[in-house]
């Protein structure tokens, strides 16, 4: 079962798939404008259908609430370029900046942040690693702090002329 809800405390629309948080759209509010920052989804829920459903829910909610939208999120911009009926949600002064500029070859999923990366084994070989110098690995160093009587400690120049 899929549920999308607006978590106003964390300023994000959350998508739940069978009770698990699958992803969200992060936003911020400024007067009567919703500034959509980015879309994030767990890798195991990677699906154009889920992303489109989540983004369309956001757009429809903005329309119902009679808010303006500032789509800083590239996934949302790409979807809005495909579905031009949502263009009036962007303030007229900003439409040229936000809309009609996305790559027509890319889909919204190409701009989504994914979490839960697949497990990978390290490709580093033993010969690729550099030995750590003994002085660093033991926490010792040749640097010593200046003494309190040093005039540079208080920000004075090193050479103080005699008067």
Description:
The protein is an alpha/beta fold and 163 residues long. It has a domain of 113 residues: Aminopeptidase, CATH 3.40.630. Helices cover 23% and strands 25% of the residues. It is built from 4 helices and 6 strands, in the order ββββαβααβα. Strands 1, 2, 3, 4, 5 and 6 form a 6-stranded mixed sheet that branches. The longest helix is centred in the middle third of the chain and has 17 residues. The mean pLDDT is 82. It holds the Pfam family Acetyltransf_CG. It comes from Paeniglutamicibacter sulfureus. This is GNAT family acetyltransferase.
- Report mean pLDDT, rounded to a whole number: 82
Number of helices: 4
CATH homologous superfamily descriptor of the domain at 2-114: Gcn5-related N-acetyltransferase (GNAT)
Question: At the first level of CATH, what is the class of the domain at 2-114?
Answer: Alpha Beta
Radius of gyration computed on alpha carbons: 26 Å
Helix content: 10-25%
Low-confidence stretches: none
Q: How big a fraction of the residues is strand?
A: 15-25%
What is the CA–CA distance across the termini? 84 Å
Secondary-structure-based class equals alpha/beta
């Amino acid at each position: 079962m899929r549920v999308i809800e607006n978590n106003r405390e964390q300023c994000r629309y959350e998508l739940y798939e069978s009770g698990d948080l699958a992803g969200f759209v992060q936003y911020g509010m400024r007067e009567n404008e919703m500034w959509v920052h980015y879309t994030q989804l767990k890798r195991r829920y990677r699906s154009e259908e889920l992303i489109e459903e989540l983004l369309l829910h956001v757009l429809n909610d903005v329309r119902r609430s009679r808010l303006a939208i500032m789509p800083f999120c590239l996934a949302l911009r790409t979807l809005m370029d495909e579905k031009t009926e949502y263009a009036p949600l962007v303030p007229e002064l900003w439409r040229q900046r936000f809309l009609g500029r996305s790559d027509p070859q890319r889909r919204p999923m190409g701009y989504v942040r994914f979490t839960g990366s697949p497990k990978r084994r390290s490709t580093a070989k033993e010969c690729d690693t550099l030995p750590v110098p003994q002085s660093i690995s033991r926490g010792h160093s040749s640097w010593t702090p200046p003494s309190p009587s040093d005039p540079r400690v208080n920000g004075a120049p090193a050479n103080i002329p005699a008067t």
